[in-house]
Structures are given as structure tokens and as C-alpha cells.
């Protein structure tokens, strides 16, 4: 999770409130437009070589069969 807010504590509080057990990073500079175009939330999935394999602006259903299948396929590559 990349927090683009100026208040990292708010991002951590949100992750804790929602019981998400993912790391949170704070950007220290400009995030490339290939990854973030200004829309929040934005989901970017990279493969093991760092290539963008999924880019979605807006909310998403991460429990959907389609998303789970995409992640499983990437893991198995």
C-alpha cells in the first residue's frame, strides 16, 4: 500500500481499522504516471520483473473470481 496522503498516521489507522495486514509505504517523491495518475484509490499489480500487469483506477472488488484468478496466474508464472 502506497500512502499518498500527507498524514501517514491516517493511512496506518485506516489499515488497522479495516484489519488489513499489508505494509504501508509513504512516497518520498513523485510517483510515475504509469503507476499513479492522480485517481484514488488506484490498484497496480506488478509481476516478479516489476512490469505493470494490472492497473485499475477506482474501487475494486478484490475478492472477485476474476481478480483472484489474475493474481493466482501471476503467482504461478
Question: How would you portray this structure in words?
Answer:
The protein is an alpha+beta fold and 77 residues long. It folds into two domains: 1-30, no CATH class; 38-77, no CATH class. It has two helices and four strands; from the N terminus they run βαβββα. A two-stranded parallel ribbon has the order 1-2. A two-stranded antiparallel ribbon has the order 3-4. The model has no long low-confidence stretch (mean pLDDT 86).
Summarize the structure.
The protein has helices spanning 8-17, 65-75; strands at residues 2-3, 25-26, 42-46, 52-57.
- Strand order across the biggest sheet? 1-2
- Secondary-structure content class: alpha+beta
Count of discrete domains: 2
Rg (CA only): 13 Å
Shape: globular
Q: Residue-averaged pLDDT, rounded?
A: 86
Quaternary structure type: single chain
Strand content: 15-25%
Give me the strand/helix succession: EHEEEH
- The parts where pLDDT drops under 50 for at least 5 residues are none
How many helices? 2
Q: Specify the biggest β-sheet.
A: 2 strands, parallel
In whole angstroms, the N-to-C terminal distance is 23 Å
How many strand elements?
4
The helix content, as a percent range, equals 25-40%
